[in-house]
Amino acid sequence: MNDDKRQKTALFRYGILAPLLSGVTEDALSNQAFFRDAANKIYTTPRGADTTISAVTLERWYYSYRKHGFDGLMPKKRNDNGTSRKLDADMAEQIKYLKGEYPRLPATIIHQKLLENGTAKRGEVSLSTVTRYINQLKLETDRIAHSEMRRYERSHANEVWYGDSSTGVHLNVDGKKHRVWIIALIDDASRMITGIDVFFNDNYINVMSVLKSAISRYGKPKILTLDNGSPYRNHQMNLLAGRVGFVLNYNPPYTPVGKAKVERWFKTMKQQWMSGLNMSDYASLDELRQSLLEYVKRYNQSLHSSLDNRCPMDRFFEDGPLIKRLSEEQLEQSFLLQIERRVSADNVITIDNKEYEVDYRYSKQRIVLRYSPDMREVFLVNRHTGELEPIRLLNKQDNAHIKRHKVSLTGGTHA
Asked: What percentage of residues in the chain have a pLDDT greater than 90?
């Protein structure tokens, strides 16, 4: 209830008690008699509803007025104002966690998850209650973001990169329409696009592909600021940051201002490049990629007003001595993915439904594997030396012709 409604309620209550408070009633009429008489009347509330009020309630209002004055007649503010009384602490914490880890998850799915895991019973918490709480979280985050937001610019190239993905066009391939995702990286100090590519999927494999190309050409950033989505926030990205040597920074949910420069660049790209596309002119993703790369090249070489009429590329390479590059070997090893697997009794492990054969020494043990995203190279990490040992796909036909030593019951062996 806002202050205006609270004040109208207090005026309504005062209007009922006014004869007693102002001494208009007869002297012989006691307070209790007034309360009993007033309780038999019908009143119209500020909301327009007809109601009766008990003598006990009227007496409480009267003494509250005598003690606190007019303010004593105003309804008290709720201690839990701004929060849902239907959501307990566990439900609220789960909703907050889900929105933090998966910012794009809709309220309908979150509501369903609360029901499926038994946190909420069907009919106990409605979808609208969950939606209101999510909107409240968004408002709270926005207030924090805007209170802390300051316009800034880093002093040197590669101090901070921003990364994000966007969509907006569909490509017809073999008679089927496919959504196209654009993943881009922009340098804070120079506004130069350091990495960009087009894909049919928005996932961490494609994000790492863009990042690898960017670091190969322009060196590594000190800080990489990304969205909270699953393509960006995952174990593989954390490992990559540790190996390459940059800090991962994730924007809080609902705060696109944290990466405003890449968001603004996407808007410019859509106005200048995407709006002029005739998608029927492109028969493949490679053709669309070539068009985008030509646009990005023009952008990086165009004068920019916020850079004192310098182009992003010139501004970036002004800091050339500060650029830290990786060797080819460092780059390739850093971008290998990593997983753990348990080796079967017959020395086989599985990655993405593909079977690989490892040395018999690792039978029934857990091992660490590293592999290229395209699965062309798969390595076993030697637990003692840390060296990468290549392994190969399982070939059952070849194994059928390998001679094995048989153990004789008499203790000898023969082929």
From this structure: 41
Domain with residue 245: its CATH number is 3.30.420.10
**Adjacent-strand bridge partners of 351:** 354
- Phi first, then psi: what are they for 179, rounded to 5°? -70, 140
Domain presence at residue 154: no
For residue 335, list its beta bridge partners. Answer: none
Tell me the C-alpha distance between 267 and 398, whole Å: 56
Could you tell me whether strands 366-371 and 378-381 are parallel, antiparallel, or unpaired per DSSP bridges?
antiparallel
Taking the C-alpha atoms of residue 40 and residue 55, their distance in angstroms, rounded to an integer, is 9
Identity of the residue numbered 88:
D
Statement: residue 280 has pLDDT above 50: yes
pLDDT of 370 higher than 90: yes
Q: Which residues contact 290 (CB under 8 A, 6 or more apart)?
A: none
Residues 169 and 228 in one domain: yes
Separation CA 159–CA 155 (nearest Å): 8
Amino acid at 318: E
